[in-house]
Structure formats: C-alpha cells, structure tokens
Amino acid sequence: MVCLLIVTCLLISVISVIYLYFLRKFSYWKDREVKYIEPSIPLGNLPFQRRGQFKELFQKFYDAGRGIPFVGGYFSTQPIIVATSLEFVKDVLVKDFNSFHGRGIYTNEKDDPLSAHLFSLDGSKWRSLRIKLSPTFTSGKMRFMFPTIVEVSNRFNQALKEIVEKDNVIDVKDILARFTTDVIGTCAFGLECNSLKDPNAEFRKYGRLVFEDPLNSIFRRVIMLFPKLAHKLHVIMTRKDVSEFFLGIVKETIEHREQNDVKRNDFMDMLIELKNNDTLDEDNNVKLEKLTFEQVAAQAFVFFIAGFETSSTLMMFSLYEMALNPDIQEKARHQINTVLARHNEKLSYEAVKEMVYIDQIVTETLRKYPPLVALRRTAQNNYEVPDSKIIIEKGTPVIIPVYSIHHDPEYYPNPDKFDPDRFIAEQLKARHPLSFLGFGDGPRNCIGLRFGRMQSHVGLITLLKNYRFEISARTPIPMVFSIHNPVLSPADPMYLRIERLKL
C-alpha cells in the first residue's frame, strides 16, 4: 500500500513538472503581448498526423491576423510566427532579407550528402551556391535547353497517342510525371530515362519513391524540432536506395563526359564546369571554391526532384481546370494555333513567348494550386518589427501562408474560380506585388522558375495542340488533396477523357 502511494505521488509529481514546463513554454507569446493561437500539449499547434492539415492550420492563423503583421503559434514548444500582412511578407522576403535569409531546414552533409542542396542550405553555404548556380538559369541557358525539351515533348505526344488509342480515359498525373521525368533526366543528367515508354524505368521509380514513400512523418517532425540531436544521432533524410542511385548516376555521368570530352550545354555540363573551375563573387571580389562531387550530386538531385514533381503537378492542375472550363481551353488552343501559324508551325522559343494566354493559365494554376502551401524563413538575428516594440528573436521560424494569400478575396475576388485573366497586365499592376508567391520572392525565390515555366509551357502547348481534355466519371470533383505528399497534389489519380484532334 505504501509503495503504491509512493508511485502515485511520483507520477503526480512528474506529470505536474511536465505540465508546468509546457505552461511556461506556451506563455512565450502571451508574455510578449503578441496575438497567438492557443496551443495544445505536447505538439503546440502542429496537427497530430496529417501533413495535409497544414493548409487548414495556416488558414486559421491567417484569418486570426487580419489587420496585424503576424500571429504567434508553436511547433511543439518552439515559438513560430505566421505572417498575415503582405507588407510584413515583403519585409521578410525582400526588404529585410538579410535578417531572414535562412530556411532552418535540417541537413546532414556528412551522412546524407544529397540533403545539402540549394533549397535546404543556409548562410554562407547557401549564398556561395546561389552565386555559382544563378548563371545556369539565365534566359540564354534556357534557349540552349529548349530544343531538348521540344524533342522530349514530341516523344510525349507519340506515347500519349498510343495510350489514347487503347483507352481515352487515363490518369494524366502519371503520364505527365513521366514526361517531366524524361525532360529533367535529359537536361540534368544527359540520359534517356525512357519513362514515357516504361512507367517503371529507374528514374521514374526512384523519383516516385522520394514523394510517395517518405520517412515516417512524426519522425520528420522530431528532426525538425531537434536538429542538433538529429545530427548527433547521424539521422538521414534521404532513403539509402535513392541516395545510392543518384550518387551512382552522377558519378557515371561525370566520368563519361570528362573521359570522352562530351559537351551537351545542359545542367550537368554547367555543374561539371563549377566542379573543375573557380567562381568569382563579383560583389565582394572573392574567389569561391569549386564544387565537390557530393555538392554536384546534391544540386542535380534537387533539380530533378523539384523539377519533375512541381511541373507535372502544375500541368495536371492546368488540364483539370481546362477540362472543367472548356471555353478557357478553346481560347488557349486558338492562341497556340494562331502563333504557330506565324512561325511556320514550328514551336520555337520565340513562339512560346508570344503565347501569353498560356502563361496566364500557368500563373493562375500556380495561384490556385501553389506547389508549397507555405514558405518558411528563420530569423538570423534579433529583429525589431517596424512600427512596434516587438522583437522577433534569433532562430524564430516565420511561416508565410502562400495558399491562404492566394485564396484571399481581398486580392483575388471569388478565389475558387479559375480565371487566367487575373494575370493580364492591368490586374497585375493593381495588386500588391507580394500577392503572388508561386515561386516565392526576393533573393531566395525559386532559382529554377524559368526552367519550370518553360517545360510546363512546352508540355501544355504540345498537349492542347493535339488533344482535347474533358472530365469523365472518374475525374475527382470536388478536388481532395493528398495528406502525404509535401507538394500540393490530388489524393487520387487524375482521370480525364482525352480526344485526339484531327490536324
């Protein structure tokens, strides 16, 4: 009886200590007189299981912050900020970028070299890589890659023709991912991936594994909350088989090109150039070190996984909306045919630039279905919020709720309506410049935005010229989003009816 009493007292004491610990941690924003969303023990404001709930979670913060710069919250016991005004977003991404240039993403260069890529690195390592890689994505370099993308799109057209002849209701999500896999594989690695012919080709297989079979989501959250502990435990984020495949492919590609003096004017050529030669930081007149093999592999890896998934999802949502809105689809097809007629039916870089309505469709798709529902930045120093006495302490994550901003009726009336005319010049000028964040903004915006737009434009032009897309009984209406994929995507396959046009 005495033992039971002792155990009970100990248990009550432990629970009381834990409760008081969380109570103290969760008083952070209250003590600073900052509006916040009430947290729960032990995860704070984090949803317990579903990644897909982040969109809804950040919407709750956004709605609570009308008229103020931001709202406080908690990722477990870590204080966070969710931006709720575009002027504050502008301060974080652009005006005071030097105070918020980091993302605070866990990386482990030693045990997991593919994790140390441009998207995840911070500080001087990020800046050095950004300087080195920026010339890779100029409009001039895009012109070099353009014929390769057109060549893959022609193979895409032929493959789709054969598929539609057998069954005209297909999962466009899968076939589009195979197209972008082949484009990225060719431009990044100079290899024929053959995903269009073989859905189980190696590049498609390992690309699919990155997004469709992630590590346990709770485990990822522990890593996010305790990065120092994760480093000590040598935690890796990339699957071992995925890492071995991409490191092996990059090694073979570099050896083949260097031994045989192969030049292709593609992304891998540029990475090899950075591996073999110094780069000059012109702003500071400082020579930057060459890329290591592991750094080359990491950049090729992120270019691949980011390029194939986001672009294929972008085209898929575009086709979905044009199937729901046939008048938009016909207007796009008319512009394609009109422009191509002026260019002797040849799809050139200049012709694509003239198809402004296609660009509006792409931008409106990114507005309604942003690949990342939120952006993350981390305070690099103690930051005094303009026109207030509030200090954002160093290390505090700042969340920018992209999906909520893109669906705010103040900036986009009737936000659930798909309307490419939102992005005509007059409307663009009338809106706040930070009301569209499909590629982020500021010095740390998406470095590959030109390439992403280009391959999406070429893919959509090829498809709309040759096919008509309609909804079917299996088309997901209304849209239900995946709770597993880190990129905003449908929970189920995207079946559309496809009719081949007589040209």
From TrEMBL:
Its cofactor is heme. One of its GO terms (molecular function) is oxidoreductase activity, acting on paired donors, with incorporation or reduction of molecular oxygen. Keywords: Endoplasmic reticulum, Heme, Iron, Membrane, Metal-binding, Microsome, Monooxygenase, Oxidoreductase. Pfam families: p450. Its main location: endoplasmic reticulum. The keyword Iron applies. It is a peripheral membrane protein. Heme binds at C446. Gene3D superfamilies: Cytochrome P450. It is found in: Endoplasmic reticulum membrane; Microsome membrane. CDD domains: CYP6-like. The keyword Nucleus does not apply. Belongs to the cytochrome P450 family. This is Cytochrome P450. It comes from Hermetia illucens (Black soldier fly).
